[in-house]
Amino acid sequence: MRRSPVALATVALALVGVLGVASGAACGGDPQPPPPMTKGGCGMPAYEWLPKEQVGQVVTTRESERSNFTAMTIDVMMAAFGASEFFSPAPYGVRIHHLRYGTQDRGQPVEATGLVSVPWNDGGERERFPVVLFLHGTTGFMGQCAPSYDLDDGLIFPLLLLSSLGYIVVAPDYIGLDADADFAQPPPVKHTYLGLEQTAVGSLDMVRAARALLAAQPDLNADPKDDLVIWGGSQGGHAAFACDLVAPYYAPELKVRANVALVPPTDLLGIGAYALGSVNDATGAFAAALTGFHYWHQGSAGFDTLLTTTDPWNLAATVPEAMYSGCAAEDQFDGLTEVSQVYQPTVIEKGLAGEWDALEPWGCYLRTNSITWTPITRLRDTPTLFVVSQNDKLVYAQAERDDFPRLCAQGYRLQYLECADAEHSDGAIWSLPEQTAWVKERLDGKSIAAADLCVRKDAVRCLGQPEN
């Protein structure tokens, strides 16, 4: 299976971003309301969620200029991506809609954007399809960085692939990545990078809005089944765990049947220690995550307690501004040679020692938004495919390996796959054949085999790895 460097880069953008940062029971229709979820935290003011009737509504919608792909066109595109061996011939063509919808952030109504793609056979009978909630990797922190703003910039491949296989795909931009915003102005709602609650709430409301869109658009010829598959890579892998964790509290009507988490940063404390240990791919992304957490949790500590203030590395001033004024925040870290150019000495010392409790509020932010350490009680046992890239230097592979048994000990039902020789984005791309086959088995009602359930296995050559 051969791919050009351009094709690989395009798929990588959609799946994992560009910054470098027994089958479970059908998971809907809880007979009793769940207990209240631990919301917010880290000293922020208390709030309550808006009721379901006030969120998940369609605000505006339009068909994308890049739409009405025939099955034959998709076959040609799969060939260009080197994916024909596994994904051709395409059973369906695809139509794509931009969607603006209502959601909430910390109990306040906000609007967000994203894309909905549907299987399409012109003139065919109306059909029902399972729904995929597709969660993208890091693209930036404000509206002009939203994947739906420029469909050609990577997201087109997973939309076409999954919908041509027979899935309705819901692809949120995430709250704060408003593709319709006035980019000359600061975003009215800040995107919380790796924010657990904000990401889950906004994404689950888009599933609701997409169902409303399809009900109002009979010409699309597609009805959603109750089955929901959550599927995401890198930042989106964290989001996949977050959505599955929050769904029974926030949207218990959604039946989550399977969860695909590709190179997911589940243990933010472990990745933080790695980011502080040397200048590496995670050093800047970790600072961006903490900055976003600080805004969302409404912290009062100054950024000078986290980041350096000495010129020319006055990152306490430049990083927060750069994150929400363009799509090149990573430029703030160009030329780094020492971790001390980014973080205050106490942060480095305590973080490397694992003494996060001595780094408040920063340690609280990490625990609250980390899948492993969050105070949110897990209520469901969704089967989850956990994919690792062997040579990942962004979502540090060893931190993921170490976290896998912790998650299993908490009750997660995980199947492990590590792609040999893969860098960060490679594992998410090279394992696409395994991912699609695994999801089909879950939707067919098959349990994860006992030999695979919560067993961390050695790295293997994934089926989609190029031959050279």
Strand order of the largest sheet: 1-2-3-5-4-6-7-8-9
CATH architecture of the largest domain: 3-Layer(aba) Sandwich
Q: CATH topology of the largest domain, anyone?
A: Rossmann fold
Compute the gyration radius: what is it? Answer: 21 Å
SSE blueprint and pairings:
Blueprint (H helix, E strand, L loop, with lengths): L4 H12 L41 E6 L7 H10 L3 H4 L5 E13 L2 E13 L6 E9 L20 H9 L3 E5 L23 H21 L5 E12 L1 H16 L4 E8 L5 H10 L3 H16 L18 H9 L21 H8 L9 H8 L13 E7 L7 H13 L3 E7 L4 H7 L1 H12 L25
Parallel strand pairs: 4-5, 4-6, 6-7, 7-8, 8-9
Antiparallel strand pairs: 1-2, 2-3, 3-5
Structure description:
The chain is an alpha/beta fold. The protein has 2 domains: 5-24 and 46-267 and 372-443, Alpha/Beta hydrolase fold, catalytic domain (Rossmann fold, 3-Layer(aba) Sandwich); 268-369. It is 33% helix and 17% strand. The chain contains 14 helices and 9 strands. The protein has helices at residues 5-16, 71-80, 84-87, 156-164, 196-216, 235-250, 268-277, 281-296, 315-323, 345-352, 362-369, 397-409, 424-430, 432-443, and strands at residues 58-63, 93-105, 108-120, 127-135, 168-172, 222-233, 255-262, 383-389, 413-419. Helix 1 (5-16) packs across helix 13 (424-430) and helix 7 (268-277) packs across helix 8 (281-296). It starts with a helix and ends in a 25-residue tail after the last helix.
